[in-house]
């Protein structure tokens, strides 16, 4: 196991990060020799090819994609009802493939127990007429030691605390989990970030051996595989394996139907924050998008002097004064391709052209500079390539209303 290079103080970065977004990766996968060798089904009516979407370890796990011999795993997908064998592929080539009959096979999922001789590798499904799914793009990590019950006599345990219940993408404060492992000697740890809407782990950190009793932290920047992730609830899970092979985790997989809100260690992740920090009213008619003669934004009325924050962080493209727009700025939203313009501000913006701003960072105050009747924020949202540079404006109202509801 590689040596952890984590410090004991301050915020520390994962040694490596990877993402496995099963659904999107599948399409790009090459067919393995095993899958290509699917025998013809003869004249019989072939059943639909089983399709995999996600794999999750469910019991005695070291991670969502990591378990022991004897762990129960669930493969989710489509057309799985006729699956009669689950193949643990191990290394490339058929020599170490191990097949088992599923514990159960339903239309959308198949459960199976990791057989004794299975080794780390992808998993695929075979229907009773020979139709085969593609293998999972990420291997299932299999520890050949049978799992011991959690928190054994040696006292292995893990305590987890998530900072904050809500995190905005691009904000100054990232999603962060702190954890402490309890044992008599260093413990091997993996941390996964799970998207609660479908239970898929989208990021995994493997800090290696962690000293017991010493608080550790992990930060998540809101991305997986280089992409900003969707709004919703996420949870950190910390998996610990002691030197003797005992496992413990910060949270067992929640029972189906558990409201995401009550999953321990979970937090709400949002890509935008509502920009007006005070009472406000959305304009209609001429004050709405497309109103009057081609109004390109939404007017939101609020008292002059109400603080404004960046709905989405990014780089300040323009900071100017214009006879109609008054004091305004345009922010190139990080990771969006969209530009966000804020107009009629009371004074020149608090941030400068070229600055990087965080989501939620103060940018100025509601005003009525330029051609404005009444104090309001005129907000524009432009598609790539952006504001007056080849993009086109979209109606910000539905976006702003959804940010408002959740901010
Ligand atoms: Zn306006």
Describe the overall structure.
With 407 residues, the protein is mainly beta. It has 4 helices and 32 strands. The strands form 8 sheets. Strands 23, 24, 26, 27, 28, 29, 31 and 32 form an 8-stranded antiparallel β-sheet that branches. Strands 1, 13, 15, 16, 20, 21 and 22 form a 7-stranded mixed β-sheet that branches. It has a 4-stranded antiparallel β-sheet with strand order 2-5-9-8. Strand 15 and strand 16 (200-210) form a beta hairpin. Zinc ion (ZN) is lined by residues 295, 297, 299, 378.
Task: Itemize the secondary structure elements and their pairings.
Layout: E1 17-18, H1 22-26, H2 33-36, E2 51-57, E3 61-63, E4 66-68, E5 72-78, E6 83-88, E7 98-100, E8 104-105, E9 109-113, E10 123-127, E11 141-143, E12 157-163, E13 166-168, E14 175-182, E15 187-195, E16 200-210, E17 216-220, E18 223-224, E19 227-228, E20 232-241, E21 247-249, E22 266-270, E23 281-282, H3 291-294, E24 298-301, E25 307-309, E26 314-322, E27 326-333, E28 339-345, E29 356-357, E30 362-365, E31 376-382, E32 393-394, H4 396-406
Parallel strand pairs: 4-11, 13-22
Antiparallel strand pairs: 1-16, 2-5, 3-4, 5-9, 6-7, 6-10, 8-9, 12-14, 14-17, 15-16, 15-20, 18-19, 20-21, 20-22, 23-24, 24-31, 25-30, 26-27, 26-29, 27-28, 28-31, 31-32
């Amino acid at each position: 196991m590689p040596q952890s290079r984590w410090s004991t103080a301050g915020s520390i970065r994962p040694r490596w990060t990877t993402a496995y977004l099963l659904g999107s990766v599948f399409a790009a996968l090459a067919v393995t020799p095993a899958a290509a060798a699917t025998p013809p089904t003869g004249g019989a009516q072939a059943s639909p090819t089983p399709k995999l979407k996600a794999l999750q370890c469910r019991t005695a796990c070291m991670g969502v994609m990591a378990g022991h011999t004897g762990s129960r795993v669930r493969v989710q997908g489509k057309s799985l009802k006729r699956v009669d064998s689950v193949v643990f592929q191990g290394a490339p080539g058929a020599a170490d493939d191990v097949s088992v009959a599923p514990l159960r096979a339903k239309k959308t999922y198949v459960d199976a127990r990791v057989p004794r001789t299975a080794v780390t590798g992808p998993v695929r499904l075979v229907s009773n007429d020979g139709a085969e799914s593609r293998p999972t793009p990420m291997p299932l990590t299999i520890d050949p030691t049978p799992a011991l019950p959690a928190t054994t006599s040696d006292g292995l345990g893990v305590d987890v605390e998530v900072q904050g219940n809500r995190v905005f993408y691009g904000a100054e404060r990232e999603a962060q989990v702190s954890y402490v492992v309890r044992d008599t000697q260093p413990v091997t740890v993996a941390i996964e970030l799970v998207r609660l809407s479908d239970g898929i782990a989208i990021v995994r950190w493997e800090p290696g051996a962690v000293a017991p009793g010493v608080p550790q932290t992990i930060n998540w920047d809101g991305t997986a595989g280089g992409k900003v992730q969707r709004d919703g609830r996420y949870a950190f899970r910390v998996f610990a394996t002691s030197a003797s092979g005992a496992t413990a985790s910060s949270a067992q997989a929640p029972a189906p139907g558990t409201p995401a809100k009550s999953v321990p260690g979970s937090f709400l992740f949002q890509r935008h924050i509502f920009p007006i920090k005070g009472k406000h009213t959305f304009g209609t008619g001429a004050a709405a998008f497309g109103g009057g003669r081609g109004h390109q934004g939404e007017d939101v009325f609020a008292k002059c002097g109400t603080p404004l924050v960046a709905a989405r962080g990014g780089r300040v493209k323009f900071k100017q004064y214009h006879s109609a727009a008054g004091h305004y700025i345009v922010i190139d939203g990080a990771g969006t391709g969209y530009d966000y313009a804020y107009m009629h501000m009371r004074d020149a913006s608090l941030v400068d052209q070229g600055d990087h701003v965080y989501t939620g960072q103060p940018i100025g105050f509601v005003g009525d500079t330029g051609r404005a009747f009444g104090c309001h924020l005129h907000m524009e949202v432009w598609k790539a390539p952006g504001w007056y540079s080849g993009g086109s404006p979209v109606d910000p109202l539905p976006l702003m209303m959804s940010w408002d509801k959740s901010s």
